[in-house]
């Protein structure tokens, strides 16, 4: 049933931009390998948010809200690809205890809907390094290949094939610890040190092809059962999925904001 993990995998992923090479930061809080960064402010950045502005959280909320539709096409000049649809090469799932036990992978994941994300809230505390973002995605449609084996609420699930999901009203809360290292050139960027991801949704529809080696009767039974119990199954997988998503999204955030200098969106106060 970890197709549901695919569900949520996309839930937060829209929060960021997918990129490839991460930078290296030394003990002096300096990036030792300089990535290709933006040299001009992105068009979606209407104004920078001042760190000492009492309304900085409101400003950052507007910044993130403006980002999602624009970033659907990516920023090819610095290697940030489009994320509408969002592509993830592989997501591994491993849960070995409880009412839901699953092991396997989702490969070549595509999610449609991230560019329609609404930023509900942003909170930045520069003293503690906390950056929290709450997002709402009305609809997410996903396609992927799956390879799963396990049990969902005592019902066995085994299969390899195509997976499709339809998620509605997905709320994602992302809690981060961040710092602001400098590149060798002196340009400051943002780095995520820690991340935790929580999520919830109003509904989740799932279809897994080729369950039990194509047995249509068993496949129909399992798909029907999964859909009737989707939210309960998601709740069972919540911690496992959240940990997996945090690993993926932390890299995406670092690869992305390691290429967008803070002087364009969160400059230091003079």
Automatic annotation (TrEMBL):
The keyword Signal applies. SMART domains: JHBP. InterPro entries: Haemolymph_juvenile_hormone-bd (IPR010562), To_sf (IPR038606). GO terms for cellular component: extracellular space. Keywords: Biological rhythms, Signal. Residues 1-22 form the signal peptide. GO terms for biological process: circadian rhythm. Coiled coil: none annotated. Belongs to the TO family. This is Haemolymph juvenile hormone binding protein.
């Amino acid at each position: 049933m970890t197709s549901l993990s695919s569900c949520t995998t996309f839930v937060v992923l829209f929060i960021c931009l997918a990129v490839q090479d991460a930078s290296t930061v030394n003990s002096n809080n300096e990036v030792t390998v300089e990535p290709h960064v933006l040299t001009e402010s992105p068009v979606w950045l209407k104004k920078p948010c001042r760190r000492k502005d009492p309304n900085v959280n409101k400003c950052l909320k507007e910044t993130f809200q403006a980002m999602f539709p624009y970033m659907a096409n990516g920023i090819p000049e610095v290697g940030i690809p489009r994320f509408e649809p969002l592509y993830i090469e592989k997501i591994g799932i491993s849960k070995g205890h409880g009412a839901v036990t699953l092991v396997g992978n989702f490969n070549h994941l595509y999610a449609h809907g991230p560019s329609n994300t609404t930023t509900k809230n942003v909170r930045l505390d520069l003293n503690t390094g906390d950056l929290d973002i709450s997002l709402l995605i009305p609809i997410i449609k996903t396609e992927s290949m799956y390879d799963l084996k396990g049990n969902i609420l005592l019902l066995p699930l085994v299969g390899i094939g195509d997976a499709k999901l339809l998620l509605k009203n997905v709320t994602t809360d992302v809690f981060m610890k961040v710092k602001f290292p400098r590149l060798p050139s002196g340009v400051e960027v943002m780095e995520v040190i820690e991340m935790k991801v929580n999520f919830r949704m109003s509904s989740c529809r799932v279809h897994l092809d080729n369950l039990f080696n194509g047995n249509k009767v068993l496949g129909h039974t399992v798909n029907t059962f999964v859909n009737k119990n989707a939210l309960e199954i998601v709740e069972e997988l919540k911690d496992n999925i959240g940990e997996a998503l945090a690993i993926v999204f932390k890299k995406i955030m670092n690869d992305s904001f390691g290429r967008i200098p803070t002087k364009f969106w969160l400059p230091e106060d003079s």
